[in-house]
Backbone:
């Protein structure tokens, strides 16, 4: 029920029996004024004269923040682009994302390249977007200029990234870069695999088990051990992206107990799928590190629930069908990346609800902790007085089947296709403006570039 006393899009209330706040889930009215949360109250004040939208028992949560998204523009917009990626984000309740510095061309390793990326945003930004700079061999002198231009932190690979223009760093490169990042208190995000020249898998290129063997846990574990050591040496904020190996959980826990500035994410696909159920030839499941076995997945869940893993991010990394080698099913040649930005919330919730996880868990893993990594925790990621009114309304009990026609990604290739998922996004708000409901997009181009 609505109370249309004074229709003002800059001043309204949202009432729900399930408002997810830092103090827990409660019945409340969230008052929005001029794009911010003006108050969170148990009851509507008698003097309040603006519209109040009654959401019933639908969940009202801070908008999702996904700090691991490959948008690929400029240069590879045939893979994805700001228009399609940020439409998918808004449709999935993602109100802020952070774009990765590779897969675009040029890669974001220089100020000139970053300026080209910013120039590509015009009339294509439908959700808020920040940017990571890239750390590669030889660009140490670009770190501070990129910081001055507004990047939120830096991303590095310890193995080949798949993009020749974005080579992996060595320990020597890290020794030069980490003291600079520590001085600015900005995070270094690291893809942790230390690969070897040894051929670890031969035989059937369509075999998923063969692909899994080719990227063993040991690669990941050795890389994480290196980054823990360097995190301690330089006291540099260090973030492990897309953790997949359960072997590294204990070393990470020990590092956190020592108080090191170390954070860790895993991805929805490592928590949803398992190696035993991936058919041969189904290259839509290929990612790096790979999706591992069921027992490994269960231990990742335990680490997430215990807070050893801080949050969950999609690592949305789409590619055209020919690069995914869907016809041949060749895991050795296929591009490694999973498209799932629009499904960040339902994919995680579907798996989480089976394990007794709660709505506050979801808010912590998808909103609060990602905001901290990106330096946005003072104004985004919570339903708290004074924060930006970036909000998502969703139904945790309703299901839908993933189909190509509902996906806003440029390419509809995803391992979630035809999966029945719980958690339907009903409405998305950016700075208090409703930009999406289940009927479609209400407002476009309302996203902002978030510069440090």
Residues:
């Amino acid at each position: 029920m609505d109370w249309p006393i004074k229709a003002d899009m800059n001043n309204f209330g949202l009432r729900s029996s399930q408002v997810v706040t830092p103090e827990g889930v409660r019945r409340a009215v969230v008052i929005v004024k001029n794009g911010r949360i003006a108050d969170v109250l148990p009851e509507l004040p008698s003097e309040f004269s603006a519209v109040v939208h009654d959401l019933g028992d639908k969940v009202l949560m801070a908008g999702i923040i996904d700090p691991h998204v490959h948008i690929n523009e400029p240069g590879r917009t045939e893979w994805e682009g700001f228009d399609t990626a940020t439409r998918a984000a808004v449709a999935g309740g993602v109100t802020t994302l952070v774009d990765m510095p590779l897969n675009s061309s040029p890669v974001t390793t220089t100020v000139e390249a970053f300026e080209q990326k910013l120039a590509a945003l015009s009339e294509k930004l439908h959700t808020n977007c920040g940017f990571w700079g890239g750390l590669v061999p030889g660009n140490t002198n670009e770190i501070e200029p990129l910081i001055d231009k507004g990047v939120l932190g830096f991303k590095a690979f310890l193995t080949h990234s798949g993009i020749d223009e974005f080579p992996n760093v060595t320990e020597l490169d890290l020794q030069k870069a980490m003291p600079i990042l520590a001085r600015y208190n900005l995070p270094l995000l690291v893809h942790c695999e230390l690969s070897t020249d040894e051929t670890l898998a031969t035989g059937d290129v369509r075999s998923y088990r063969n692909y899994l063997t080719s990227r063993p846990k040991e690669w990941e574990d050795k890389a994480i051990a290196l980054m823990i050591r360097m995190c301690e040496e330089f006291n540099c904020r260090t973030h492990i992206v897309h953790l997949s190996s359960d072997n590294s959980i204990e070393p990470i826990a020990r590092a956190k107990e020592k108080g090191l500035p170390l954070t860790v994410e895993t991805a929805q696909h490592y928590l949803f799928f398992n190696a035993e159920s991936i058919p041969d030839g189904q290259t839509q499941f290929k990612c790096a590190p790979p999706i591992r076995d069921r027992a490994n997945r269960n231990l990742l869940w335990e680490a997430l629930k215990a807070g050893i893993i801080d949050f969950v991010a999609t690592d949305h990394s789409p590619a055209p069908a020919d690069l995914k080698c869907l016809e041949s099913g060749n895991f050795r040649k296929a591009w490694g990346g999973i498209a799932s930005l629009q499904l960040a919330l339902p994919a995680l919730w579907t798996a989480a609800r089976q394990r007794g996880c709660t709505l506050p868990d979801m808010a912590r893993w998808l909103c609060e902790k990602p905001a901290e990594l990106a330096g946005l925790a003072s104004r985004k990621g919570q339903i708290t007085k004074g924060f930006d009114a970036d909000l998502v309304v969703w139904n945790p009990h309703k299901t839908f089947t993933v189909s190509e026609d509902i996906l806003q990604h440029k390419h509809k290739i995803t391992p979630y296709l035809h999966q029945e998922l719980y958690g339907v996004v009903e409405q998305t708000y950016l700075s208090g403006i409703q930009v999406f409901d289940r009927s479609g997009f209400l407002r476009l181009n309302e996203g902002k570039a978030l510069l440090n």
